[in-house]
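Protein of interest.
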Amino acid sequence: MKWRIGDVTVTKIVELEVTGGSRFLLPQATYDEILPIQWLQPHFADERGRLKMSIHALVVETSSHRILVDTCLGNDKQGRRIPTWNNLQGPFLADLAASGFPRESIDTVLCTHLHVDHVGWNTMLVDGKWVPAFPRARYLFGRVEFEHWRAQQERDDMAAVFADSVAPIRDGGLAELVETDARICDEVSLVPTLGHTPGHVSVRISSRGEEALITGDFMHHPCQIARPDWSTLADSDPDEARRTRERMLAELSDRPVLVIGTHFAGATAGHIVKDGAAYRLAV
């Protein structure tokens, strides 16, 4: 799946798609609550009201850069909180290459935040050692985000993620710490969207008068467009996450911005439009 924003192309590379099983993340999203939000079907929910979600990466091609935004779960990882995310053996790198993006061709890796499903393919296991999967890339980590997870002592699962998917990049000299409003190149810049994590960012793309926004996880699922008051159990500051959603939805509904959801399945992208007292995603 591809989108064009002026002279920029964005390509979606899927690692994993699931239907149901997301109540651990959004317990508010019961079948009875989801079914009345009819516009969620068929892309984002099924006829029973089960949520559809995707873990995918996005390749942003500009005139000067080939940027991989978020790197999914990765293979061979251990210590993940969700058991099925351990010891994966998926074809992500082969799928990336088949789409025209061999790993050596990526010059920038950009992580919207450092949760498990956004950093996994930063590294790959070679002869028992974690090495950068994209050896010619600079890896952009938010400074606030990096310092937060480097210092945390409470979550063993995040310590494992940092050890196998973030620290090897730093130790290999490929990490570059950036601010939450950094400009990556002429067409790509960061937007602070805090609350899910302390340094969470979204990615703005602007080219020839057209604009897109890659959400990261300030929204996990389009149901939060209809119900921005629903924060997920993964949000570090649920109140701030709600305020961020409300602010961003209001801003996005006023402008023709293509919103590309980092975990949105199916059509994945659309425009935020007002829908009564709330909003919907027009695809």
Q: What stands out?
A: The chain has one domain: 2-282. The longest strand covers residues 8-19.
